[in-house]
Automatic annotation (TrEMBL):
CDD domains: Formimidoylglutamase
Name of the protein in its database record: Formimidoylglutamase
Alphabetical keyword list: Hydrolase, Metal-binding
Gene3D superfamilies: Ureohydrolase domain
Protein family per UniProt: Belongs to the arginase family.
Length: 394
């Protein structure tokens, strides 16, 4: 597939401004005169400047280019860096055309095992990101990081306010699970959260993220893709959106979540949406987004490809669900049964997974979980994540 026909090249100044040999600018292959070989890359940046889905219209400057100027000045991380920049996507004749272009481009990158890094435009562009996964012909999971839950009724609402509803109700459905992170409850109608609960999807308020950010890691680890709205960050840390919000994630928390996403072995695309440089007079938000991308890339090169749960790098536990609490270590390699939940712990990363078999016994899924889930099961309590996964398996 000739992806070059969908993109405009970058200007030389975006890369040459950061010419030190130790910066990312020296390692990225950008689209200047020649379209880069994306098939030889691990990650590919895609700039977006499509705002027809937002009621506020387009900003006067290109947000992706503003973030690029900051990103390319950052020092290269400790791992390798096979990164290309495909330039800026040319919007379609209609907004729906843009969604379909994203679908085709991302699907091609997924087929090649190249991870797209989507940067800019309104948050509804993650609908095009979502559509690309339909080509995989398997159930997928995704996570959104946003201050609001964009589930407005489509009649009379802009796509940026209703795109999540469109994804969750898409037919034919290929969605297994969804997680909403860092929303602020006073910005979300109660019936919206009730609908997500009824669908057995997980949510994590910004206060819960702040109390223990490690709660977010299993939710991001289960995702095939993640989309982030910059409005999830508080205005003081990232003044690149409107209306201003004094509450939200800190820049450190946002960078940590990007790291978690990058470390996820199964995550295959990552989007940062909603940045408006017109509100970012000093470039603070651009630097925050650039740093988030840096942490994602660094996390990507720290992946451990932990998929062989029966291999020697995993310790296997079986927690009983009945009887008095048991605080002692449970036996290793115990036999599973209807009154047990099997857990797997990586000896490389200390991350945990949980095996869920549906009640009919004809479907099984191993899902990311936390150490707290294991402790609950060890005390005879059924973890909430097990109940939700059981419901999704049917």
């Amino acid at each position: 597939m000739n992806l070059a026909i969908f993109f405009d090249p970058l200007t030389e100044e975006l890369v040459s401004a950061a010419s030190a040999p130790t910066t990312l600018a020296s390692y990225v292959t950008p689209f200047l005169d020649t379209f880069p070989d994306w098939r030889a890359a691990d990650l590919a940046i895609i700039g977006l400047d499509e705002w027809r889905g937002s009621a506020d219209g387009a900003p006067s400057r290109h947000g992706a280019d503003t973030v690029r100027k900051c990103l390319y000045q950052l020092q290269k991380g400790s791992g390798p860096c096979r990164l290309v920049d495909l330039g800026n996507l040319r919007p379609g004749l209609t907004l729906e055309d843009t969604y379909q272009r994203l679908r085709e481009i991302i699907a091609a990158l997924l087929e090649n095992n190249t991870v797209p890094l989507l940067l800019g435009g309104s948050h509804d562009l993650d609908y095009g990101q979502f559509l690309a996964y339909e080509t995989l012909e398997r159930p997928i999971s995704f996570a959104t990081i946003d201050a609001r839950v964009d589930m407005a009724e489509p009649e009379g609402a802009m796509p940026a306010d209703s795109h999540l509803r469109r994804m969750l109700l898409h037919e034919p459905s290929f969605l297994f699970n969804f997680a909403q992170l860092a929303h602020q409850q006073y910005l979300v109608a109660p019936d919206v959260l009730a609908a997500l609960e009824k669908l057995h999807f997980e949510t994590l308020r910004v206060g819960q993220v702040r109390d223990d950010i490690r709660q977010a890691e299993p939710l991001l680890r289960q995702a095939d893709f993640v989309s982030v709205d910059i409005a999830a960050l508080r205005w003081n840390d990232a003044p690149g959106y409107y209306p201003a919000n004094p509450f939200g994630l800190t820049n450190e928390e946002a960078a940590k979540l990007a790291w978690y996403a990058g470390c996820n072995d199964q995550l295959t695309s990552f989007g940062l949406y909603g940045y408006r440089p017109d509100y970012d007079a000093h470039g603070l938000a651009a630097m925050v987004l650039a740093t988030m991308l840096w942490y994602f890339v660094e996390g990507y090169y720290h992946r451990r490809r932990e998929t062989d749960f029966r291999g020697p790098s995993f310790v296997r536990y079986a927690a009983g669900l009945h009887g008095p609490p048991d605080y002692s270590p449970l036996e290793e390699y115990a036999e599973e049964g209807p009154d047990r939940i099997v857990f797997y712990k990586s000896q490389q990363t200390d991350r945990w997974w949980m095996e869920v078999v549906n009640l009919a016994g004809n479907a099984k899924r191993i899902v990311p979980c936390s150490y707290q889930d294991y402790l609950h099961a060890a005390q005879g309590d059924v973890p909430h994540r097990w109940i939700l996964t059981q419901a999704l398996l049917g």
